[in-house]
Every structure is written in C-alpha cells, then in structure tokens.
Amino acid sequence: MSTIDQFKAQLIGGGPRANRFRVFLPRSGNKIEFLAKAAQIPAATLGEVLVPFKGTTLKLAGDRSYADWSVTIINDNEFSSRTALEQWQQEIQGHGTSTGMATTDYLLSRGFVEQLGKDDSVLARYEFFNMFPKEIGVIALSYETENALEEFEVTFTYSHWERVI
C-alpha cells in the first residue's frame, strides 16, 4: 500500500502545471507564442479491428488516427495572428473562388506545443506535421462584454504528431 510520502515523491517540483505552456506556429508569426491562451497536448488514438471468431469477437489494433488540434488565441490591436492565419487559408483557397495553391506546399507547415516547467524548462514538446488551419473561429462582439480581451479559436488539422522531447 502506498503512503502519502511515496505519492508526493512522484510529483517532483509540485508536478507540471496546465498553465505553463507555449505554442509556436512558424507560419503564423511569433506573436502566437505569447497570445495563445489555451491549447492541448494531443490525444493518441488507435482504432480497432473487430474480427468475429467462433462466437466471440477478437479485438486487434487498427490504424492510428489524429483528432484536430485547437488553439485559443487572444487578439491584438493589429490582428496580427488572425491576419496571418487568414492569409494562410487564403493561399490554400481564395474566398469566393476555387483557386488557390497549385501544389500542396501549404502541407509543409508545422506547429509545436510545449509543456513548460516552473523554471521555463521544456518538459515535453509535441510537433505537428503537414498542418493547416481548418477553421478560424469567430470573434464574439457584444456591447455587454466589458473588461475582456477579444479571443478566437483556431482548429488545425494535420497528418500526424510526434513527441520530440
């Protein structure tokens, strides 16, 4: 049976904190690193293949799938992050047209999310490959909103992620 002291010994430095993170999207400029309000460490999902066998079902590991990744960004007066993301989408496909990039060069984009320690050391780094902004969310405007900064959510899709650290 474990004791409280054994439990505490597992949480060196008090354990990682959810509010200590950094997001970096090279394609969207440096400000996102400072203006990202929320993000997630990505999920890992393996599908399953069901194989009927003599009255029972055998479950085998299937293909890995990757859920979309969302980042909440605080808007700045220059709309710098939002503008960069909108331009990225515009390059992929223009508004009101069916034209866009003649190649899939936009899939060369990467992104990173890092879990930071209390001393800003990187505890874990996840890298997303072949990503693009699938949805740039709304910025809610209201006369009733006081003392709040504008923010919006961006949903990215990507081919896969890798844990680098």
Which SSEs are present, and which pair or pack?
Blueprint: H1 4-9, E1 21-24, H2 32-35, E2 36-38, E3 45-53, E4 56-65, E5 69-74, H3 80-92, E6 110-116, E7 122-129, E8 132-136, E9 151-157, E10 160-163
Antiparallel strand pairs: 1-6, 2-5, 3-4, 5-9, 6-7, 7-10, 8-9
Helix content: 10-25%
Oligomer: single chain
Report low-confidence residues grouped into runs of 5 or more: none
Kindly name the structural category. mainly beta
Strand content: 35-45%
What is the straight-line distance between the termini?
32 Å
Largest sheet: 4 strands, antiparallel
H/E element string? Answer: HEHEEEEHEEEEE
Strand order of the largest sheet: 1-6-7-10
Which of globular, elongated, flat, extended, rod-shaped describes the shape?
globular
What is the radius of gyration? 20 Å
Question: Overall mean pLDDT score?
Answer: 92
Helix segment count?
Answer: 3
> What is the count of β-strands?
10
How would you explain this protein's 3D organization?
The strands form three sheets. Strands 1-6-7-10 form a four-stranded antiparallel β-sheet. Strands 2-5-9-8 form a four-stranded antiparallel β-sheet. The protein has a two-stranded antiparallel ribbon with strand order 3-4. The chain is built from three helices and ten strands; from the N terminus they run H-E-H-E-E-E-E-H-E-E-E-E-E. It has helices at 4-9, 32-35, 80-92, and strands at 21-24, 36-38, 45-53, 56-65, 69-74, 110-116, 122-129, 132-136, 151-157, 160-163. The protein has 165 residues and is mainly beta. The radius of gyration is 20 Å and the shape is globular.
